[in-house]
Amino acid sequence: MLPRFGQREFGRRALGLGALTLLVGLWSVTALAHDVAAGDRAFVQATDGPAFLPFLYLGAKHMVTGYDHILFLIGVVFYLARLRDVVLYVSMFTIGHSTTLLAGVLLDVQANAHIVDAVIGLSVVYKGVENIGGFRKAGLSIDPRAAVLVFGLVHGLGLATKLGEHGLSRNGLLTNLIGFNLGVEIGQVLILLLVVTLLGLWRGSVSFRRGAFAANLALIAGGLFLTGAQIMEYLA
User: Fold this and answer.
1) What is the distance between the alpha carbons of residues 33 and 22, in angstroms, rounded to a whole number?
2) Cα(212)–Cα(46) distance, integer angstroms
3) Cα(229)–Cα(160) distance, rounded to whole angstroms?
4) Which pLDDT score, from 0 to 100, does residue 175 have?
5) CA of residue 212 relative to chain centroid, distance
6) Residue 12 or 27, more confident
7) Where are the alpha helices (DSSP H) in the chain?
8) If we measure between CA atoms, which residue out of 95, 110, 113, 101 comes closest to residue 150?
9) φ and ψ at 169, to 5 degrees?
């Protein structure tokens, strides 16, 4: 049986390994951009009128299964140890994606989904590079809060593009959009509770420094994978 300290350290290492495995698994499960499921797409296309609760559910489901958004959020909170910092950065992301989600659908903004998703993949690469100090070593100074806000705008445009492709009815549109956006926020909070808890436990272990570097390399690889897949889809 392991000594008490050994058990605690083993548990922390296991949590760290689990977090890294989850991170890698999220981006490696598929080469395609996450999208509205076929059954959900049919529901969206058939809905004519307010359907707040179903769209609330769809928004939460879309975020919880949206590995591109999840990977970016993991990168954003990776080194944030204080709750107020987590709230600040996530708020910047929320303001960004809520703005373009609502405006993009209501104003019928047209954008190529593959190009938008490729940029979303690059947002994951950005966070990984930033977390390992790549920009600092290159002599570049980028305000991380502004970057999160800008990439939040791109993520929201990605959501708006996917919804817009499915012919949303204008009847009850605002109600349904608000429901969907609120669902996205609920899903985001659920994901963050898990991620922040795992990272907080892992951060207290001696293995964090080495594992953190590997995890951010995985973020970079995942972002490049997502970007490359979208460029190939666009060219095809």
Assistant:
1) 18
2) 46
3) 20
4) 93
5) 18
6) 12
7) 4-28, 38-46, 52-64, 67-77, 83-106, 113-131, 134-137, 144-164, 173-203, 208-235
8) 95
9) -70, 140
62, 61, 60, 74: which is closest to 27 by C-alpha?
Answer: 74
Which tens digits make up the pLDDT trace of 117-171?
Answer: 999 999 999 999 999 999 988 888 899 999 999 999 999 998 898 887 777 888 9
Which of 65, 114, 63 lies closest to 93 in space, CA to CA?
A: 63
Q: Which amino acid is present at 191?
A: I
Residue type, 177: L
Cα 175 from Cα 148, distance rounded (Å): 27
Distance CA(24)–CA(159), nearest Å, equals: 23
Going by the DSSP 8-state scheme, the letter that residue 33 receives in this structure is P
**Token pair for 66:** 């949206």
